[in-house]
Amino acid sequence: MGLAADFVLIVVGGLAGAILARMLRLPLLVGYIFAGIVVGPYTAGPTVAQVHDIEMLAEIGVALLLFSLGLEVSFRDLHVVRRIALIGGPLQVLLTMALAALAAGHLLGFSQSESLWFGAMISISSTMVVLKVIAAANATSTLASKVMIGLLLVQDLAVVPMLVVLPQLGNSDHLLKRVVSSLGLAAVFLVVVFFAGTRLLPPVFRYLLSWGSRELFLVAVVATGFGVGAAMHAAGFSFALGAFLAGLMLSESEFSHQALSDVVPLRDIFGLLFFVTVGMLFDPHYVIHHAALILLVVAAIVAGKAVIFGALALAFGYRYMAPWVIGLGLSQVGEFAFVLARTGFNAKLLSKPVYDLALSATVLTIALSPLISAAALPLGRAWKRRMKPVAVPAYVAMPTPELTGHVVIAGYGRIGRAVARALRRAGVPCFLVESSYSLMGDFQSAGFAGIWGDISGDEILLAARIPHARVLLLTMPDKHTVDLAADRSRRLNPALRLVVRTTQLEYLQDLQSRGISAVQPEFEGGLEMVRQVLTHCGHADDEIMRLVNQSRREIYEEQLD
User: Fold this and answer.
1) Which of 64, 182, 197, 374 lies deepest, with the highest CB count within 10 Å?
2) Which CATH entry fits the domain spanning 407-519: 3.30.43.10, 1.10.287.600, 3.40.30.10, 3.40.50.720?
3) What string of DSSP letters covers 514-542?
4) What distance in Å separates the CA atoms of residue 339 and residue 343, rounded to the nearest whole number?
5) In the chain, where does the domain assigned CATH 1.20.1530.20 lie?
6) Where does the chain hold its CATH 3.40.50.720 domain(s)?
């Protein structure tokens, strides 16, 4: 089977590694890398044969990873913590790079070029791990978490100039001229891409969506990412860098949430491929023979980054527990270190020992990150007890989020439109999610907040702030979409109340058993007819309400028996 057999081996091995990682409460990418070690050339057992071809496919994983990162970038997230993010973020990256490069050159004997590569890899923290740790601790709305997210966003953006500048270090001839030329060309390309993304692409996407094909939209999104990536590659830059710029130009459009929701499954599969190939280049014998060095480097990275981030937080006025939470929370090395390591190794700018050391340190810091983050508060309190008592600064309250305790309405058809209007008259905040792009303009012109997208997607649910919502109203008749949306929204917000429209009588019992309020349009139409008849017969309003409610209970109970 050739390449197909290798692909099956990698996916099955990745699944086994992911299950093992989950059982050990480790991030999935640690399991993927472990699977790569198992199927790689340095261990016995089943081995990938077409390594070069698999590595070529893995480049798609890098491109999709950066493309989705571009889609997720929201400069609005920097508003609350813009000072520390926009000033402190670049300062942290440069300071960490410089100190790590100096240590690598003087203490580990790396060359000047390899020291800079190593410093760049160390300077980036893990967005994926930090967000999961914050979510698990139910601390997404705290000030320290906002600071960490702002700093992570700046770090992710810093990967772009790194991918432009670092490959130029392989040749010292006219280095400054080549670096300035590359950055200038990248800036020009960014302007062109931004113009195309804001002026040319939106009309094209709207035209495609007018045909009502979700599949065509997905193909157009992927073609945009890969097309810009190919253009950047033809201009002498990284294919993955072009994909990032493509995601960035779509990030502020009305298509961003659905585009991200559609791309995530592709990204996860090809991302698995990438992380497995990272592990395939890893030599476990290196860990056995250099265990002491690896542990020393890991300890130095965690301590050094914690001190830098903690000092940065103090310098920008964050006190009490914030420096501890921020410092230890961002002390790991991020997943983009793998992208930089692969880029440097493939360009023959990183030697195998340096690659193995960087990979080992990254994996260990990511694996230890949840434990280190959990120690922030106890260590901070212990430190405060040992120090002289100081005045505790006043609590800094975060701005109230725009949407809290709101109702999310999925579908702006006749039912959704009527509910939205009634909620507005009642003064209840609501947020609309409509899967038909043509209807988005309707609710926007009516003055309702909302987005276009599939309510069953996690990214769409998060964009609708489901974790902070009170009620989710699902008006679509499609059972599959309702089930997915119900399960995923309950996972994000267990206290969420769900109200579902269903035309299938046999589906009522299933919904009721799951604690979901079901509404059957035909039954409700009949009850409305009962109400009107009783009104014309002169019954009092409270008596009509009692009789209608009694009839409603009887009708639904009959269907559940």
Assistant:
1) 64
2) 3.40.50.720
3) TT-EEE-HHHHHHHHHHHHHHHHTT--HH
4) 6
5) 3-381
6) 407-519
CB 401 within 8 A of CB 432: no
Helix (H, G, I), strand (E, B) or coil at 124: coil
Tell me the two tokens of residue 561: 């028996």
User: Distance (Å, rounded) from C-alpha 356 to C-alpha 223?
Assistant: 35
E strand segments, 453-506? 471-474, 497-501
Report whether pLDDT(197) > 70.
Answer: no
- Residues 307-336 have pLDDT tens digits of 999 999 888 888 777 888 889 989 999 878
Output 34 or 392, whichever has higher pLDDT: 34
Take residue 429 and report the two structure tokens written for it: 């905040």
**Dist CA 398 CA 41 (whole Å):** 52
Residue 174 phi/psi, 5-degree rounding, is: 55, 45
Residues 45-91 pLDDT 10s? 788 887 777 777 777 877 887 788 778 766 665 666 778 888 898 99
By CB atoms closer than 10 A (0-12, 13-18, 19+), residue 420 is buried
Helices (H), 166-238: 175-195, 201-209, 214-234
Are 455 and 486 in contact by the 8 Å Cβ rule? The answer is no
The 3-class SS string of 31-88 reads HHHHHHHHHCCCCCCCCCCCHHHHHHHHHHHHHHHHHHHHHHCCHHHHCCCHHHHHHH
Q: Using DSSP, state whether 501 is helix, strand or coil.
A: strand
Judged by DSSP in three states, 240 sits in helix
pLDDT at 27: 76
Instruction: Say if residue 126 is exposed, middle or buried (CB neighbours under 10 Å; 0-12, 13-18, 19+).
Output: buried
Nearest-angstrom CA–CA distance, 369 and 346:
28
What is the pairing mode between strands 407-410 and 430-434? parallel
The closest of 399, 395, 468 to 431, measured between CA atoms, is 468
* Residue 380 to residue 382: CA distance in whole angstroms: 5
Confidence of residue 398 (pLDDT cuts 50, 70, 90): very low
Rounded CA-CA distance 411/398 in Å is 32
Cα separation, 66 vs 156, whole angstroms:
9
Q: Name every residue whose Cβ is closer than 8 Å to that of residue 313 and which is 6 or more positions away in sequence.
A: 84, 147, 322, 323, 326, 327
State the Cα–Cα distance between residues 18 and 35, nearest whole angstrom: 8
What confidence tens digit (pLDDT) does each residue in 443-454 have?
888 889 998 888
**What is the b/e burial string over 185-208, where b = at least 16 CB atoms within 10 angstroms of the residue's CB?**
ebeebeeebeeebeeebeeebeeb
Which residue bears the tokens 């072009």?
A: 242
Tell me which of 70-74, 298-302, 399-403, 465-469 is least confident.
399-403
- CATH for 3-381 is 1.20.1530.20
Distance CA 186, CA 545 (A): 68
CA dist 262 and 240 (Å) reads 19
Helix (H, G, I), strand (E, B) or coil at 104: helix
Residue type, position 103, single letter: A
